[in-house]
Write a structure and sequence with these properties.
The complex is a heterodimer. Chain A is mainly α. Chain A folds into 2 domains: 43 residues; 147 residues, no CATH class. Helix content of chain A is 48%, strand content 10%. Chain A contains 6 helices and 6 strands. In chain A, strands 4-6-5 form a 3-stranded antiparallel sheet. Chain A has a two-stranded antiparallel ribbon with strand order 1-2. By secondary structure, chain B is mainly α. Chain B has a domain of 42 residues. In chain B, the strands form 2 sheets. Chain B has a two-stranded antiparallel ribbon with strand order 1-2. Chain B has a two-stranded antiparallel ribbon with strand order 4-5. Chain B is globular, with a radius of gyration of 24 Å. The chains are: A mainly alpha, B mainly alpha. The interface between A and B is large, with 111 and 134 residues. Strand 3 of chain A pairs parallel with strand 3 of chain B.
């Protein structure tokens, strides 16, 4: 018998058994251990950081939702299909910078924003007209919230100052002044807005 | 670059640098020393594993035997991942009742995960059961990473030993890499990630009642599930209203941590580390970036330590670091500049205290430009391939950097193990070139570099460009290849070039617009991944075996020092020369021409 065939057979047994042992260790015991620890120490986070209003789960604090009512702050555009903010189909548009489809989409989004707020001629903050990477971005930039403040105030019949104060209260800054970007969680901002009445 | 971005980048690089010595020293001890405390603590478990598997840890292997064991272990791993995907409807932990994956998709994914590539033709949250993710994909996240590490250790032993017939015991090395390096780090990171909101549960997907009702259109299908067409051949759309959002669930934290630490990169969910359940905030983003880099960076110190001269390791790290920082600046600057065509539409892309600005298509608000560009550079400098933004929507030059880093052969830090062993192969080629220039026999770390090492090193380096460029050429020539392209023009070519560069270098990130879950791409990319992984590994092990057998020649006046500035420049030069000469023509057809078109004066 040639030596190559012998080498294969001698390697087969440890290869198979070690694969089984490692599968049990890293594929079963390890995730179970993490789940156990997370359930004890961080039960809310491990379950999806769910947000409850009056006993009803209305979403996750980490996952964005679609808002089209002019009286709410709008989230960023979402490229998920068939509907935006589809939790089971995360992803971006993957449109390249020169793709005419990208430019058409941005134009349509600008038009929709302007149609809902005809008096507002300020340049539109870029995150409000570009699709996020996940399709589930929970945040908008502070600029994007400020841009919408007058519209929301007008539709709701609230003083602009009050809406701006609400944005300021809901703004998350940079961690340690370095990490992340200043942002506003849209679901939490809108829930706070709805709670005003 | 604004102050916050500069501080983030400088602080991050400092953190990585601080980790290099402790992590590297620890790994050197795991593979070289008996006395390190985790090995003492784990000794009973280790002994039990060896007894159960019939492994004699005291017997070392020659390079051929080592390579055979490695290949056998990986082939069986691929079969296991394939079987789990094909059998998942009949197995437990499948609360969404996902059907089995098609044969070509399952084959692609199996090869993808054992080769440490984690190219994903499927979409995690709508295809894979929890069991497949945990016991198939995540297991290979550990084992493929361990495989990479042990090949590096074997090569380092080849350099460190002399007149030796063996380079270690593969089973023992893989077991130790998993038990003492990957598993403890993954466990700690997983718990920290879970504290920040990365989910970890086994529930079925959760329906929540959204604040607003959502009206949308989708193509209408007949009873058999085929899309309906009207008389003109356009799809018939139906309008639906929903008040529900379905949130994916699953054991994500445990998989997320090893996905980064093992430079695997395969996300539990389709959007990968851009998904808030995988990467919920700036802190998790920082930790994930750090996790990707610490093992590849630390291995440079392990190398220096094991060959008895830590300056050798720092020299290699310096070469990697210089390439990394240079390329990072290109990405950050290019993404922050934004898209001139969008600016013309009356959009504000300027960075300010209230917004990140720049090119935000395919990026998350919480990460903005700096942390997205940094992540993209890290994930392609290493062979990780996790993404927190969509590379397909990057600016042309911002997307060129990830592409080019992969095409350099994943040596700018590189994958766990693959980075250092590929870089050492370039070092061998570098000293050979230097030897030719000054007319001396080339040597590296006291080992004469001769014809056999040069042949094997050339094979290890050249197989990748060969398969990447051939694969790209075939794909752009056949209809099955062109059909997958999502973007028109030069960008469409870039998508194909990126796919094969990613597969051939076992990175796994994508210009994700490409529709690659087709029989053509599943098979072509699987072959590319397989060859790109194991062909170089066998060549590297051959070099290791050959070097181990050599005598050590004493340092003389004619020895070229391999720890100084000259050597660092030589190493960078070798990497750039090979990479640039091979790939610049292809890059010119893709991102470079796209850049010119984007910025041309109207």
């Amino acid at each position: 018998m040639n030596t190559r065939a012998k080498e294969i057979t001698t390697a087969l047994r440890p290869a198979l058994l070690l694969l089984v042992v490692m599968t049990v260790l890293t594929g079963i015991l390890y995730p179970l251990l993490v789940a156990g620890i997370a359930r004890v120490l961080f039960p809310a986070q491990a379950a999806g950081s769910l947000v409850t209003v009056n006993g009803r789960v209305v979403g996750s604090g980490l996952i964005g939702q679609a808002f089209t009512d002019p009286g709410h702050f709008w989230s960023r555009p979402s490229a998920s299909t068939p509907q935006p903010y589809n939790g089971t189909a995360s992803g971006g548009s993957n449109l390249g910078p020169l793709n005419p489809a990208l430019l058409d989409a941005v134009k349509a989004r600008i038009q929709a924003l302007r149609a809902a707020d005809p008096g507002n001629l300020a340049p539109v903050p870029v995150d409000l007209v570009t699709a996020s990477a996940s399709g589930l971005d929970p945040d908008i930039s502070v600029a994007a919230a400020d841009y919408q403040a007058a519209r929301v105030a007008r539709v709701r019949g609230l003083p602009l100052k009050q809406v701006q104060a609400l944005i300021a209260r809901r703004t998350a800054g940079r961690l340690l002044a370095v990490l992340g970007e200043p942002r506003v969680n849209v679901l939490e901002l809108n829930l706070a807005l709805d709670a005003l009445k | 670059m604004n102050a916050a971005a500069s501080t983030l980048i400088a602080g991050f690089l400092l953190l990585v640098l601080l980790c290099v010595k402790p992590v590297g020293l620890y790994m050197a001890n795991v593979f070289d020393a008996q006395s390190v405390w985790p090995r003492r603590a784990g000794a009973p478990l280790e002994r039990w594993i060896y007894r159960l598997c019939g492994i004699d840890p005291s017997v070392e292997m020659g390079w051929k035997q080592y390579a055979m064991a490695l290949l056998m272990f990986n082939v069986l791993g691929a079969l296991a991942v394939y079987a789990l995907q094909r059998a998942q409807p009949w197995l437990p932990l499948n609360p969404q009742k996902f059907p089995n994956l098609s044969a070509d998709s399952a084959f692609n994914t199996a090869v993808s995960f054992i080769t440490n590539t984690n190219w994903q033709g499927y979409s995690g949250e709508s295809a894979m059961s929890y069991l497949t993710q945990m016991a198939g994909l995540a297991v290979q996240n550990f084992l493929s990473a361990a495989t990479g590490i042990v090949v590096a250790i074997a090569l380092i032993r080849g350099l460190a030993r002399h007149t030796a017939a063996t380079i270690g015991n593969f089973w023992v090395d893989v077991t130790r890499a998993t038990l003492y390096v990957l598993l403890p780090l993954a466990l700690v990171l997983a718990v920290v990630l879970a504290s920040q909101g990365v989910i970890q549960n086994f529930s079925s997907y959760k329906d929540v009642a959204t604040v607003e009702a959502l009206t949308y259109q989708q193509p209408k299908a007949d009873a058999a599930g085929n899309p309906l067409k009207d008389a003109a051949g356009n799809p018939v759309m139906e309008t639906l209203t929903t008040h529900t959002q379905t949130l994916p669930m699953g054991p994500i934290a445990s998989q997320e941590s090893i996905k980064e630490l093992g430079t695997n990169g395969g996300g539990f969910l389709n959007a990968n580390s851009a998904h808030p359940f995988e990467n919920p905030n700036a802190l998790t983003n920082l930790l994930e970036m750090l996790a990707i880099l610490i093992i590849p960076a630390g291995l440079t110190y392990t190398f220096g330590r094991m060959v008895g001269d830590t300056r050798q390791g720092w020299a290699v790290l310096a070469a990697m670091g210089i390439l990394f920082v240079t390329l990072l600046m290109v990405t950050v600057h290019s993404e922050q500049q934004g898209n001139p065509l969008i600016a013309q539409l009356g959009v504000d892309q300027a960075a300010s205290p209230t917004q990140a600005g720049g090119n935000m298509e395919g990026k998350e608000t919480r990460f903005g430009i700096a942390a997205s560009a940094l992540f993209a550079t890290i994930t392609t400098a290493t062979s990780c391939g996790a993404v927190n933004g969509m590379h397909d929507s990057f600016t042309p030059l911002g997307g060129l950097v990830p592409l080019f880093q992969m095409q350099l052969g994943e040596v700018v830090f590189g994958g766990v193990g693959t980075g250092i062993y590929s870089m050492l192969i370039f070092a061998i080629v570098g000293v050979f070139i230097a030897g030719l220039m000054i007319g001396r026999t080339p040597e590296y770390l006291g080992k004469k570099i001769e014809a056999f090492e040069m042949k094997m090193s050339s094979i290890a380096i050249l197989v990748m460009p060969f398969i990447v460029l051939t694969g790209t050429a075939v794909a752009v020539s056949v209809d099955a290849g062109k059909a997958g392209v999502a973007n028109p023009g030069a960008h469409g070519f870039s998508e194909i070039l990126y796919a094969f560069s990613s597969a051939g270098n076992n990175n796994g990130s994508a210009f994700a617009g490409i529709s690659a879950n087709t029989p053509f791409y599943n098979v072509a990319l699987a072959l590319t991944m397989w060859l790109g992984r194991f062909w170089p590994i066998v060549a590297v092990l051959a070099v290791a075996g050959s070097l181990a057998a050599k005598k050590r020649i004493p340092v003389s006046e004619g020895t070229m020092p391999t720890h100084g500035v000259t050597f660092v420049i030589l190493l960078i030069g070798t990497v750039l020369l090979v990479g640039a000469l091979t790939f610049v023509p292809a890059l010119a057809l893709g991102p470079i021409v796209e850049h010119v078109m984007l910025w041309k004066t109207p």
